[in-house]
C-alpha cells in the first residue's frame, strides 16, 4: 500500500510514503500514522514481521525527508500530537527498553528478563502500560512518562486525545479490552511546555461503569458518546469545571449510536448501526437536532471529516461492493448531494449474478425461556437451489464487542463464484452488533451463548435446505478461532471442517503470555476459582473429545511472530488433537493440518503475496474436505 497526499480534493494524488520499499519481502509495514495539526510533520509507526511492537518515525512533509527522531519499542499505540505541533503522546510498556543501549536498537527484546530475543517471538507477559510524551528534536531517553498503570494485574490500559483547542489532554482508562472507562483530564496551560512526569490529573469520571468515547471539545465542554443511562448510546457534553452533564443527542431505542464526527465547526455526522448495517445522519451540534439523512446504499460506512473543513469523506463497502469513497461539501448546502470521489474497479467476477440476504435465526442459548434472534448474512449466486447440497462457509467472531459488519472479500467471492458456495457471516453474541447488551450476553460466564448461537445458525442453514453438515465449513480468527474450535468440540457432527486462524485455544494459561491478561475481562481470570470454572468448560485445548464417532477436518493457522495470540496456542492444540484424535481422523479420512507462516504475526501488515498464498491454502483445504468443485 502507498500513502497518497493531495492539497485539494480535486487534485491528483502524490506518493507521500511507499511502505513497499521498507523490505524486500514486504513484511515491514505501517501500523499507525498521524499528521501534526499544521500538516508539516508526519509521524508513523512501523512493525517488522507482523509483530505488535513498533518503531515510530517522523517525516518533514514538504521535503519528504525523515527527521532524526526515532522512538523504539512502542506497542498498542495511537499517535496523538499536541496542538502546538511540538510533540506526540504514545504508548509502550514498562521494561520495554531494559538493557537496550541505543535509541535505534529495536531488533531485540529484553522485556522482563528475556535476553536477546527477536522482536515478535517473545512470549513473556508485558509490564504495565505507560503513556509518554516525546518532544520533536529530543532523544527517546528524554521522553516524559505522564501515565502508568498501577493496578496489581497491570491490566489497565490508556488512550489519550488532545482537546480541539489544545488546552486539555483527555485520557481514557480501560480495564484490559473492555470498553468501559474512566476519564481523566490534564490541563495543558502552556501546551507542551507544561507536560511533566506523572502529573496530577483531574478525575472527571473515576469509575468504570460505562463507556465514554471522547468526540470533540468546545471551550470547557467535552463531548462523549456514552451508554450511561442509554444502552444504545447517546451523545452528551460534560463541563470540565462544573461537571454538569447535558444530553445533546438522545438514545435511539432501535439503533446503536456507533460513531460521531465533528465537521464544519458546528455539525456532527452521526453513524448508527441498524441490524448490522450502517446509517448516517447530520446533526446540529448545539441543538442536537437531526438535519438530514445521507442517502447511501446498504453497507458498512466510515467517515472522515474535520471541524475546520466543510468537506466530508464517506467510505462505503459491502459484500458485493468494493470500496467507494464519496465526498460531500456542506459549504454548498447542508443538503448537498454526495459526489463520487474514488472507486475501486473490480473485474473478473460478474457481481450482478450474486445476491446478499440477511436472516434472523432463533437461538436458545443458556436460557431457552428467553431465545434471541441472531442476524446472519448469506451471500450466494442468485440461481442457488435450496437442495441441501451447497458447500457453505460460515465466518464468525463473537467477542470483545466487535461487530462483524458487511465487508468486501476477494476470497469469499472466489468461493461463491467459482465453487458455487455460500458465504455466511453469523453475528453471534459476544460481538457488538447490538451494543454492550449483546456483548455481555456472550462473555465471561455467558460465553457459551456465543457457541450456541453459531450452532443454531448452522442448524438453521441445514433445516432450510441451504446445505448439510458434511458440506459446512466454519472459520474464524483470534477470538473467532476460539469460537469455531469450541463449537467443534461441542457439536462435531455439525461441521465437515474447521478453519482456526491464530486462535485463542488455551484458556487455562492465555493470561500468562504477552498481553493476554488484557482479556481477563472478556473470558475470566483463570487464577480466580469462580472464573476458572467459566473457562474450564469451554477451553478448546482442554475439551477435545475423548473418543468421538465423528470429528471435522481441522486446519490451524498461526504466524511465527504472532506476539498477541502466541503460536503456543495453536501448537499445543494441534499436538493434543494429534495425540487424542490422530487415529480417529485417519479413520474418517479427515486431515489435521497446521500452517505456520514465517515472518508473520496476528495478521496486521501482512503483504499481499502472503495473503494470496494463505487464502489459496484455506480454500484448497475447504474445497477438498467438502468435495466442492471449481467452476470456470
Automatic annotation (TrEMBL):
GO terms for cellular component: cytosol. It catalyses: Hydrolysis of Pro-|-Xaa >> Ala-|-Xaa in oligopeptides. The keyword Hydrolase applies. It comes from the Eukaryota. InterPro entries: AB_hydrolase_fold (IPR029058), Pept_S9A_N (IPR023302), Peptidase_S9_cat (IPR001375), Peptidase_S9A (IPR002470), Prolyl_oligopep/macrocyclase (IPR051167). This is Prolyl endopeptidase. It is an enzyme of class 3 (hydrolase). Keywords: Hydrolase, Protease, Serine protease. Residues 5-332 form the Peptidase S9A N-terminal domain. PANTHER family: PROLYL ENDOPEPTIDASE (PTHR42881:SF2). Belongs to the peptidase S9A family. One of its GO terms (molecular function) is oligopeptidase activity. It comes from Adineta steineri. Residues 421-627 form the Peptidase S9 prolyl oligopeptidase catalytic domain. Its EC number is 3.4.21.-. One of its GO terms (biological process) is proteolysis.
Amino acid at each position: 500500500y502507498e500513502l497518497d497526499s493531495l492539497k485539494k480534493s480535486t487534485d491528483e494524488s502524490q506518493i507521500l510514503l511507499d511502505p513497499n520499499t521498507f523490505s524486500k519481502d514486504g513484511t515491514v509495514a505501517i501500523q499507525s500514522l498521524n499528521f501534526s495539526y499544521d500538516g508539516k510533520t508526519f509521524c508513523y509507526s512501523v512493525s517488522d514481521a507482523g509483530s505488535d511492537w513498533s518503531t515510530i518515525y517522523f517525516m518533514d512533509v514538504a521535503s519528504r525527508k525523515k527527521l532524526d527522531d526515532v522512538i523504539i519499542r512502542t506497542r498498542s499505540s495511537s499517535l496523538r500530537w499536541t496542538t502546538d505541533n511540538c510533540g506526540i503522546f504514545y504508548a509502550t510498556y514498562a521494561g520495554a527498553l531494559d538493557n537496550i543501549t541505543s535509541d535505534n536498537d529495536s531488533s531485540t527484546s529484553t522485556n522482563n528478563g528475556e535476553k536477546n530475543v527477536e522482536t515478535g517471538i517473545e512470549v513473556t507477559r508485558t509490564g504495565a502500560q505507560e503513556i509518554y510524551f516525546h518532544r520533536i528534536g529530543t532523544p527517546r531517553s528524554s521522553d516524559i512518562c505522564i501515565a502508568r498503570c498501577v493496578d496489581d494485574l497491570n491490566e489497565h490500559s490508556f488512550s489519550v486525545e488532545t482537546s480541539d483547542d489544545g488546552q486539555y489532554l483527555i485520557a481514557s482508562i480501560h480495564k484490559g479490552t473492555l470498553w468501559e472507562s474512566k476519564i481523566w483530564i490534564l490541563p495543558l496551560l502552556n501546551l507542551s511546555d507544561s507536560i511533566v512526569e506523572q502529573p496530577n490529573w483531574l478525575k472527571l469520571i473515576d469509575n468504570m461503569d460505562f463507556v465514554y468515547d471522547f468526540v470533540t471539545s468546545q471551550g470547557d465542554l467535552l463531548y462523549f458518546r456514552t451508554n450511561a443511562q442509554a444502552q444504545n448510546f447517546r451523545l452528551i457534553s460534560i463541563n470540565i469545571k462544573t461537571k454538569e452533564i447535558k444530553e445533546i443527542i438522545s438514545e435511539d431505542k432501535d439503533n446503536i449510536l456507533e460513531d460521531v464526527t465533528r465537521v464544519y465547526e458546528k455539525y456532527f455526522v452521526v453513524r448508527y448501526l441498524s441490524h448490522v448495517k450502517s446509517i448516517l445522519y447530520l446533526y446540529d451540534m448545539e441543538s442536537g437536532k437531526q438535519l438530514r439523512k445521507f442517502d447511501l446504499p446498504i453497507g458498512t460506512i466510515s467517515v472522515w471529516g474535520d471541524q475546520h473543513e466543510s468537506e466530508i469523506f464517506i467510505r462505503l463497502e459491502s459484500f458485493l461492493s468494493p470500496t467507494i469513497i464519496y465526498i460531500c461539501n456542506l459549504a454548498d448546502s447542508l443538503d448537498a448531494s454526495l459526489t463520487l470521489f474514488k472507486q475501486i474497479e473490480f473485474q473478473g467476477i460478474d457481481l450482478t449474478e450474486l445476491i446478499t440476504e440477511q436472516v434472523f435465526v432463533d437461538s436458545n442459548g443458556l436460557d431457552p425461556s428467553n431465545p434471541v434472534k441472531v442476524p446472519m448474512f448469506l451471500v450466494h449466486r442468485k440461481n442457488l437451489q435450496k437442495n441441501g447440497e451447497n458447500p457453505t462457509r460460515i465466518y464468525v467472531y463473537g467477542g470483545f464487542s466487535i461487530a462483524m459488519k458487511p465487508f468486501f472479500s476477494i476470497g469469499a467471492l472466489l468461493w461463491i463464484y467459482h465453487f458455487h458456495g455460500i458465504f455466511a457471516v453469523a453475528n453471534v453474541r459476544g460481538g457488538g452488533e447490538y451494543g454492550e447488551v449483546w456483548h455481555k450476553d456472550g462473555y465471561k460466564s455467558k460465553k457459551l451463548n456465543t457457541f450456541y448461537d453459531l450452532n443454531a445458525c448452522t442448524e438453521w442453514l441445514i433445516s432450510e435446505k441451504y446445505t448439510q453438515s458434511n458440506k459446512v465449513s466454519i472459520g474464524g480468527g483470534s477470538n473467532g478461532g476460539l469460537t469455531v474450535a469450541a463449537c467443534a468440540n461441542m457439536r462435531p457432527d455439525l461441521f465437515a471442517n474447521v478453519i482456526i486462524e491464530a486462535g485463542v485455544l488455551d484458556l487455562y494459561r492465555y493470561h500468562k503470555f504477552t498481553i493476554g491478561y488484557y482479556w481477563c475481562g472478556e473470558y475470566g481470570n483463570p487464577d480466580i476459582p469462580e472464573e476458572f470454572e467459566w473457562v474450564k468448560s469451554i477451553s478448546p485445548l482442554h475439551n477435545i473429545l475423548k473418543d468421538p464417532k465423528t470429528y471435522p477436518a481441522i486446519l490451524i493457522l498461526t504466524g511465527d511472530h504472532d506476539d498477541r495470540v502466541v503460536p503456543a496456542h495453536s501448537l499445543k492444540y494441534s499436538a493434543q488433537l494429534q495425540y487424542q484424535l490422530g487415529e480417529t481422523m485417519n479413520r474418517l479420512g479427515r486431515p489435521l493440518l497446521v500452517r505456520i507462516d514465517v515472518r508473520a504475526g496476528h495478521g496486521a501488515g501482512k503483504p499481499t503475496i502472503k495473503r494470496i498464498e494463505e487464502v489459496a491454502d484455506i480454500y484448497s483445504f475447504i474445497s477438498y474436505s467438502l468435495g466442492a468443485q471449481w467452476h470456470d
